[in-house]
UniProtKB/TrEMBL annotation:
Pfam families: DUF608, Glyco_hydr_116N. The keyword Membrane applies. It is found in: Endoplasmic reticulum membrane; Golgi apparatus membrane. Non-lysosomal glucosylceramidase that catalyzes the hydrolysis of glucosylceramide (GlcCer) to free glucose and ceramide. It is an enzyme of class 3 (hydrolase). It catalyses: a beta-D-galactosyl-(1<->1')-N-acylsphing-4-enine + H2O = an N-acylsphing-4-enine + D-galactose; beta-D-glucosyl-(1->3)-O-lithocholate + H2O = lithocholate + D-glucose; cholesteryl 3-beta-D-glucoside + H2O = cholesterol + D-glucose; beta-D-glucosyl-(1->3)-O-chenodeoxycholate + H2O = chenodeoxycholate + D-glucose. It is a peripheral membrane protein. Transmembrane segments: none annotated. Pathway: Steroid metabolism; cholesterol metabolism; Sphingolipid metabolism; Lipid metabolism. GO terms for cellular component: endoplasmic reticulum membrane; Golgi membrane. Keywords: Cholesterol metabolism, Endoplasmic reticulum, Glycosidase, Glycosyltransferase, Golgi apparatus, Hydrolase, Lipid metabolism, Membrane, Sphingolipid metabolism, Steroid metabolism, Sterol metabolism, Transferase. This is Non-lysosomal glucosylceramidase.
Length: 943
């Protein structure tokens, strides 16, 4: 038996110091950057731990990062693979979680918190609520400040389509983040879930190795500890690929994993499957027999794996000329049982064998010897016995082929999981529409995946290619644009099927009938929800979705339309149940009529039926939610031309705007904030007229005028035109200070802070082509001056211009620390700001601003595939794997929208932004092909 004879210690040592600058060693350094030469080549940075006053330490030593191209670029990879992937050496130093500090220590107040402030009672109220929820009701807290998810810098591309559950693999190949029950994550590497290679020459096994750097305490009979320096990981969502050199064997394996995440596809994109295509290159002068064994535990490494009653059985399925074979692992829990299928494609020259069951807690020697003997598994017939309580079981499937001398072969394996029902509601998952809901779909799913993945890859290529091949776009951007999309599936996402014969309770109210296309849309495209964040478990948090919605409307517009219909239903409905809010301590009803809810509910409750899981503030008084609905309605219409949608949404827009008018307390055409944190910055107090909410208000009023015009509603058009006139004047008078719009008009010490998100209204207007000409809402010169000030102060004046834009900056160049959120950087806000800059012609500034966030998150902090909501300058972050960063797709929209104007080039990666911002104004983008929408920049038809 061969094997990797380098010990872990020598690998670990060489990770730190690149011999010869890393040139001689195969892919020796951890990287989270492109492999296309766009990287920085900077020395490793090891951020030190930081402690946040409220949520504790969250950042441990991070990965080191280099922007190095692997020797020969991606030449080792024989198929034409895109280069702009997040990539890393599998031999990289794993990230360690920070020291075990008290996460979310509620005894420590944030800086600037007033002892007598009503919310200083928040910790007591929160703790009482948390105790009742978690210890008495035995449910999970929608935000668990007592028990945060530990940071692990290990993640790579998740597996699976949209809304059927996801299994995330780490960049070292581990199966480590599990979301099969929607919205509920299990974090843990399952050791038995591995790929193992066996090489045979002249009838003798010459090499057998688990392709994992681990040296676990179970399955010691296996040959672990593959030297990760011989492998290199790349991720470009929804694909990832790892190139493995097999030391001493002159054989290169490349495993690429493909998930069906395909824009504008509403069938295959819903499938809970992934395919692993193993390309084998034999560099020898003699043939080699290659086996890839895929082993998998029955379960996700959670305590249920030991609950007993799980069993496995072999299967084979032939259909349409395709034959697949493998093992089904039936996971028989009382709620949400599921079946995993581990399968391989049988084709001429490929033999598929299996082992129905083995003990993953034992030494694994039997399995190892079985494979070692002849490169195949025993393939017993019949099902395994069911596990006893306390016992775990696993299975393995092996695909074997012979690769000719200097030749190349492919082995194709798949993983499918079939959990047709979810723990809330009565609806099944979207994929059951195509594969049935009896729980027996796993064989068909795996067969379908193996038969269709080539078509998926063609479609993914066609979608991504125009961006990847655009030499004017920096490589980091290409990685960010596609890799941030992981959250579309791995955001606790659920996509449900609404059958024709059943109507959920919340869709039965009288008002709902006025939404004439509600049922046709929901029945045709299903119901979609994703979490605010993996740590903030609320579905479709609407103030945040406002930012992320660009990804949805550009890539799966029907899901955005469906989501909006669901929000419209909640606007019409109410929930009169009283409850106490944790910040103010006041009691008010859960949901008022004619207001947009904060979220659609908690996955641990009944989402859609019980909305507003968030109980920090009473969001009936938030100023941004209603406006964000109106802004999205018109933006969606502008991009989709969906006239029935606009007609249905129009009365809802009118209702929420009427309700919003109560916030214009002085009748000057401009709403006022209420002196508490009454908007998405829910810990940053705002009082009186404000740049953020006032700006969103004016933009929404402008869109009301436009929609009224399109729909021929003259009366409403006049009404909102009048409000717009007055409101614009009030906004300029109360907030414009000659350089930018003040944070608010309260005259407080921090009123004059520079808010990075002050142009959010303009962002949406620009995205819908409503920022030009006579009817412009914000004077162009003011917008440009505000953006220039933000660039100068919040971006370049913060962390040397390398970390994006801080939310709030004082005019003297010191971050606004009046609240925890004013001194944070919100990645999703930064991408939105960058899009606004691009819309306004500040293309270089926009790219520089966004680049800071990408590099901080994906390179410096090692937070690939878990982009948080926020970080501070000193290595503190908040809320892992968050929705808002999907707003990067608005940068893409801005670039696409500029096609047709004069050409422009974003700066090459890491190029310094020229001193002034002036020279870039008026630059316009080069031809940027459409990656998001289908077809050219839209001009909505009039109705
Ligand atoms: C009670 C504290 C203030 C004490 C005082 O004034 O004296 C609060 C200070 C900081 C708060 C935490 C801030 C972060 C979390 C925010 C989260 O809400 C969600 O976050 C998004 C913003 O990132 C928002 O857009 C979204 O709509 C929200 O769902 C709520 C929990 C926080 C941990 C929050 C808790 C209160 C404070 C500690």
């Amino acid at each position: 038996m061969g094997g990797d004879d380098r010990d872990g210690a020598s690998c670990a040592h060489s990770r730190q110091t690149p011999p010869g600058g890393g040139q001689g060693c195969p892919w020796p350094y951890p990287q989270y950057t492109d492999t296309h030469g766009g990287g920085t080549g900077t020395a490793p940075a090891i951020p030190t731990a930081g402690r946040h006053p409220w949520w504790g330490d969250r950042v441990g030593p991070s990965l080191t990062h280099r922007g190095q191209t692997p020797p020969g670029g991606t030449q080792g990879c024989p198929w034409p693979y895109p280069h702009s992937a997040a990539s890393t050496s599998v031999g990289a130093q794993p990230g360690h979680p920070g020291p075990d500090l008290q996460q979310g220590d509620l005894r420590r107040a944030p800086p600037g918190s007033a002892v007598h402030h009503p919310s200083s009672w928040f910790p007591c109220r929160y703790f009482r609520w948390w105790y009742k929820k978690t210890c008495i009701e035995k449910k999970s807290a929608f935000i668990d400040l007592m028990c945060a998810v530990p940071l692990q810098q290990i993640y790579g591309c998740p597996l699976g389509g949209i809304g059927g559950g996801t299994i995330t693999r780490g960049w070292r190949g581990e199966f480590c983040r599990w979301q099969l029950n929607p919205g509920k994550y299990h974090y843990g590497t399952v050791i038995a879930d591995q790929f193992t290679v066996c090489l045979r020459r002249k009838g003798q096994t010459v090499y057998q190795q688990v392709l994992s750097v681990e040296k676990p305490s179970t399955l010691q009979g296996w040959n672990w500890g593959y030297c990760g320096h011989y492998a290199f990981y790349h991720a470009l969502y929804p694909r990832a690929w790892t190139v493995y050199e097999l030391p001493g064997q002159n054989v290169v394996l490349t495993c690429r994993q493909v998930s069906p995440v395909i824009p504008h596809d509403y069938k295959d994109s819903s499938l809970p499957v992934a395919v692993f295509i193993w390309e084998v290159e034999n560099g020898n002068e003699e043939p080699v027999e290659v086996s890839i064994m895929f082993s998998m535990q029955n379960g996700m490494g959670a305590k249920e794996d030991k609950s007993g009653g799980h069993w496995n059985e072999p299967f084979a399925l032939q259909e349409g000329g395709e034959r697949v074979a493998g093992v089904l692992l039936h996971h028989c829990t009382p709620t949400n049982p599921f079946t995993l299928a581990v399968a391989a494609r049988e084709k001429a020259g490929t033999v598929v064998t299996h082992l129905t069951a083995f003990d993953p807690a034992g030494s694994g020697r039997d399995v190892w010897q079985d494979l070692l003997q002849d490169g195949k598994l025993e393939s017993p017939t019949g099902e395994s016995r069911a596990t006893a309580k306390g016992e775990v079981t696993a299975a393995a499937v092996c695909a074997t082929c012979t690769v000719p001398a200097r030749g190349h072969q492919t082995l194709e394996l798949a993983l499918a999981w079939d959990m047709p029902r979810v723990h809330f509601g009565a609806l099944g998952r979207r994929y059951t529409r195509f594969f049935g809901s009896d729980g027996d779909a796993a064989p068909a799913l795996s067969r379908y995946a193996l038969a269709h993945y080539e078509e998926w890859e063609r479609k993914i290529d066609a979608w991504q290619k125009p961006v990847l091949e655009n030499s004017q776009l920096p490589s980091w951007y290409k990685s960010a644009l596609f890799n941030e999309l992981y959250f579309m599936t791995d955001g606790g996402t659920v996509w449900l099927e609404l059958p024709h014969d059943c109507l959920p309770q919340e869709l039965q109210g009288p008002g709902v009938a006025s939404l004439s296309h509600l049922l046709p849309v929901l029945r045709e495209y299903g119901r979609f929800a994703y979490l605010e964040g993996q740590e903030y478990r609320m579905y479709n948090t609407y103030d945040v979705h406002f930012y992320a919605s660009f990804a949805l409307v550009m890539l799966w517009p029907k899901l955005q339309i469906s989501l909006q219909y669901d929000i419209a239903v909640t606007v019409i409905n109410e929930d009169v149940e009283p409850r106490q809010y944790l910040m103010s301590g006041q009691t008010a009803q859960v949901k008022l009529k004619n207001v947009v809810p904060h979220d659609i509910g908690d996955p641990d409750d009944e989402p859609w039926q019980h909305v507003n899981a968030y109980l920090m503030h009473d969001t009936a008084n938030w100023k941004d939610l209603n406006l964000k609905f109106v802004l999205q309605v018109y933006r969606d219409y502008y991009l989709t031309h969906d006239a029935p949608y606009l007609r249905d949404m129009w009365p809802v827009c009118q209702a929420v705007m009427e309700s919003e008018l109560r916030f214009d307390t002085d009748n000057d055409g401009l709403i006022e904030n209420g002196g508490f944190a009454d908007q998405t910055y829910d810990a940053w107090v705002v009082n009186g007229a404000s740049a953020y909410c006032g700006g969103l208000w004016l933009a929404a009023v402008r869109m009301m005028c436009k929609m009224a015009e399109v729909l021929g509603d003259e009366e409403t058009q006049q009404k909102y035109s009048g409000i717009l006139q007055k409101g614009k004047e009030a906004f300029e008078r109360m907030l414009w200070n000659g350089k930018y719009y003040n944070y608010d008009s309260s005259g407080s010490d921090t009123s004059s802070s520079i808010m990075s998100d002050q142009c959010a209204g303009q962002w949406f207007l620009g995205a819908c082509g409503l920022d030009q000409g006579e009817l412009e809402v914000f004077p162009k010169s003011h917008v440009i001056s505000a953006l220039q000030t933000i660039f100068e102060k919040n971006v370049m004046g913060f962390a040397g211009g390398t970390m994006g834009a801080v939310n709030g900056m004082r005019p003297d160049g010191v971050p606004d620390t009046s609240s925890v959120q004013s001194s944070e950087v919100w990645i999703g806000v930064v991408y939105a700001l960058a899009a606004t800059m691009i819309q306004e012609g500040m293309v270089q500034e926009g790219f520089h601003t966004a680049e800071g966030c990408y590099r901080t998150v994906w390179e410096q902090l090692g937070m690939a595939f878990q982009t948080p909501e926020a970080y501070c300058e000193k290595k503190v972050y908040r809320s892992l794997a968050y929705m808002r960063p999907l707003s990067i797709w608005s940068m893409q929209l801005a670039l696409e929208s500029r096609v047709g104007r004069a050409p422009c080039a974003p700066p090459p990666s890491s190029s310094p932004v020229p001193g002034g911002t002036k020279q870039s104004i008026g630059d316009s983008p080069g031809p940027v092909a459409s990656a998001g929408r289908q077809g050219p920049c839209p001009v909505p038809p009039s109705l």
